[in-house]
Amino acid sequence: MNLQCPLLPFAVLSLVLSGCEGSAEPVAADTSVEVVDVAVHDQDLESIEWVETPWWGTPENLDEAQAIWAQMSGENFASTWTLMPGTTRNLLSNAPHGGVVNVYLNDAAAVDPSHLAAGSIVVKASMSTPGAPAHRYSVIKKIPDFDPEHQDWFWVEYDDIGHVVTDDRGTPLAGAIGPNKTSDCVSCHKFDSDFVFLNPTQ
What whole-number distance in Å separates Cα of residue 192 and Cα of residue 202? Predict the structure, then answer.
């Protein structure tokens, strides 16, 4: 889930959601780093129809983002969810989600990561160094009929304590993000399988 693709520097914030809990990311015992190639595919940016007024970051989007964070926290995702197949803890990631990352799947996603079903959640937890607390969470959830043009993925970026981050224009990064000059998940991720980098079908 590397949620600025042109997005933000992942740096990939801050309209605060009420009731957020502290970071659920534990310090990993293994502090070794595995390098993985998740480079963004070349794309013709001139072909993208950039929008000046984003349609994400709405109150409804923020309600959904809060519900997703509550589910993640309630299930203690960093301890109980499955790592993306083919990955280990402490992956060295490219921009925009630079640094070291762990990629988690909820139960719905873990059933078949090659064909992610409705209800699937993928969490990319970003750390500055191996074993450090996560400082950013890029999250996607597949919600039926949410955005059929882009496989119904809901995108959201959280800071270390579950606040939804904002882009350079102050728009909360939650919803169907992109295409936009300051924030764009879908135009980048669409090049990979089901919009998910590190998906095992690659």
Answer: 8
User: Which residues have a Cβ under 8 Å from the Cβ of 75 and sit 6 or more positions away?
Assistant: 81, 106
d(CA 28, CA 76): 14
Q: What is the CA radius of gyration of the chain?
A: 15
Amino acid at 151: Q
Domain parsing of the chain, residue ranges: 48-195
**Cβ atoms of 30 and 132 closer than 8 Å:** no
Mean pLDDT, 10 residues at a time, the chain of 202 residues = 38 34 41 36 45 74 96 97 90 70 94 91 93 92 87 90 89 76 49 45 38
115: left (phi over 0), alpha (psi -120 to 50) or beta: beta
Is 14 exposed, middle or buried, given 0-12, 13-18 or 19+ CB atoms closer than 10 A?
middle
- DSSP-derived letter for residue 188 is H
Q: How long is the chain?
A: 202
